[in-house]
Amino acid sequence: MRLPCPYCGDRDAQEFSYRGDAGPRRPEGEDGLFDYVYLRDNPAGPIRELWYHANGCRNWIVVTRDTRTHEVHGSSLARESGA
Amino acid sequence: MAEHLIHSEQEGWALATVMARRAVGPAAVGAALELELRDEPVAVSNGAIRAIGTGPGAWLVIDTEPDHGFADALQDRLEGLASVSDQSSGYAVFRLSGAGARTALQRGAAIDFHPDVFAPGSVATTAIAHIGAIVWQVDDSPTYDVAVFRSLSGSFRHWLEETAAAL
Question: CA–CA separation, A82 vs B21, rounded Å?
């Protein structure tokens, strides 16, 4: 699988580390912390995911990927997409 | 048939990483260094120093004929704009040239080095034989420079010699 890095261009997925769903937000207090740490949806379809381009520009990026087909719909720098 | 590959290690270069502070754009950093910097993986030069784009707001700045205190002088020019870290002893730079240089890189990195898409001035930060490497094309003879962490330069040279022998 190749992932489109917004800076480097299309790169082999092996250059990246996978972090998972880009959606969850850390809560301010302890309420909701368990859900934030442990609970994830398992969608069949498009999902926004965090990848770290370790062997490249060393930036976190958000990739939108369809879990059924592995089709990639685009990517952006995490710092610019508020992830 | 053996293809010609010449490789050597650059000596005496001064290198430093430059990382722009938050909300400081490439134009402001470039203005301070008299370079036309962009947030793209390209190499630009003003005759005195060269900047290799390694990430958004990040460059490897090189002086091939440095004065003493290169990184300190760079830091003075970039006060408040960017962070500077001297890497002169952190990276080793190998120069690859000759007809086999492109083939050798193609065997090491999952990067398209075809001249239509990778030309003089193009940069790729990637891994070669699991070794983090910054590759940029110097001219279209073709000549490439490859920067690797110095502690891994022995392993990189080993890969280079094995690859050259198999060309």
Answer: 18
Q: Nearest CB to A55: which of B39, B58, B126?
A: B126
- For residue B56, whether the previous peptide bond is cis, meaning omega lies within 30 degrees of 0, is no
Examine the domain organization and report whether B105 and B50 are in the same domain: no
| Distance from C-alpha of A47 to C-alpha of A66, rounded to nearest angstrom | 6
Q: Phi and psi dihedrals of A56, rounded to 5?
A: -160, -125
Domains of chain A: 2-81 (3.30.2270.10)
Q: Could you read off the pLDDT of A5-60 as tens digits, one per residue?
A: 999 999 999 999 999 999 999 999 999 999 999 999 999 999 999 999 999 999 99
Write the CATH number for B108: 3.30.1360.120
List of chain B residues whose C-beta atoms are within 8 Å of the C-beta of residue A9: 41
Residue B156 and residue B150: Cα distance in Å, rounded? Answer: 9
What region, left, alpha or beta, does residue B101 occupy, with left being phi > 0 and alpha being psi -120 to 50 degrees? alpha
Q: Tell me how many residue pairs between chain A and chain B have CB atoms under 8 A apart.
A: 37
- In angstroms, the separation between the Cα of residue B59 and the nearest Cα of chain A is 10
